[in-house]
Amino acid sequence: MKPYATSVSSCEITITNPLGLHARPAAQFVKHALRFRAEVWIIKDGRRYSASSLIEILRANLDQGSTAILEARGRDADEAVAGLSQLIREFKE
């Protein structure tokens, strides 16, 4: 039996929400990240924050205008990055 291939996917994200990625949208982001089998991180200023941890997402200080890298590793990495980056773009407040 062959092991499943592990893919890695990433993209740059920019926070456009005027209030940044504060508690409510951060909780929604984590909820969506947990739906994927891939491990997902946000990388900002050289630090890695787990997308499956609300505390870590809040610690990333993702204010409006912040840029970061959204990275996923796993079987559905491409889908995770596409879906979560779209979610980030949809947050309004």
Written account of the structure:
This protein has 93 residues and is α+β, with helices and mostly antiparallel strands. Helix content is 33%, strand content 28%. The protein is built from three helices and four strands; from the N terminus they run βαββαβα. Strands 1-4-2-3 form a four-stranded antiparallel beta sheet. The protein is globular and about 40 Å long.
SS content category: alpha+beta
Share in helix: 25-40%
Q: What fraction strand?
A: 25-35%
CATH architecture: 2-Layer Sandwich
In which order are the strands of the major sheet placed? 1-4-2-3
Q: What composes the largest sheet? A: 4 strands, antiparallel
Domain module count? 1
Q: What Rg do the Cα atoms give? A: 13 Å
> What count of helical segments does DSSP give?
3
Overall residue-averaged pLDDT value: 94
What's the level 1 CATH class?
Alpha Beta
Determine the CATH superfamily: HPr-like
The count of strands amounts to: 4
Annotation keywords:
93 residues; alpha+beta; Histidine-containing Protein, Chain: A; four-stranded antiparallel sheet
